[in-house]
Predict the 3D structure of the following.
Amino acid sequence: MGLGRRAQCGGRGGYVHIAHCQAPGGLPALVQLGWSPDPHPPQWDGGRVSGRIAPFHKITRLVADPPLAGLAANAAPDPSDIPNNHLAYAVQWFLFAGVALVIYALALRRRAKGAAAVVTSAPSR
């Protein structure tokens, strides 16, 4: 059994109980088993779990539905928990592209001035 995170359910403080598991194929997985006012994790020996997949920091977790016996139901995952910074990311890359174009234009200008100086200072016979 894994960790318990502080959370609220119906305005009461408590803990969300999360188990570290292994998914079919050997991949590690987190399973949110349920909510409880007790910080001590419930006894769970593993087994088949069904529910919804939701983000959890930078890891994906399975939110059990129904919860483990003796625990309260988990809150349904909220899509607003997923960061939506796509516009900022796109603007950032367009700015990088603009800066790259400016640098390229300055390099071409400098190369053209250098070539002109070489042509005009050719040795005379």
About this structure: The longest strand covers residues 12-22. The CA atoms of residues 101 and 107 lie 10 Å apart.
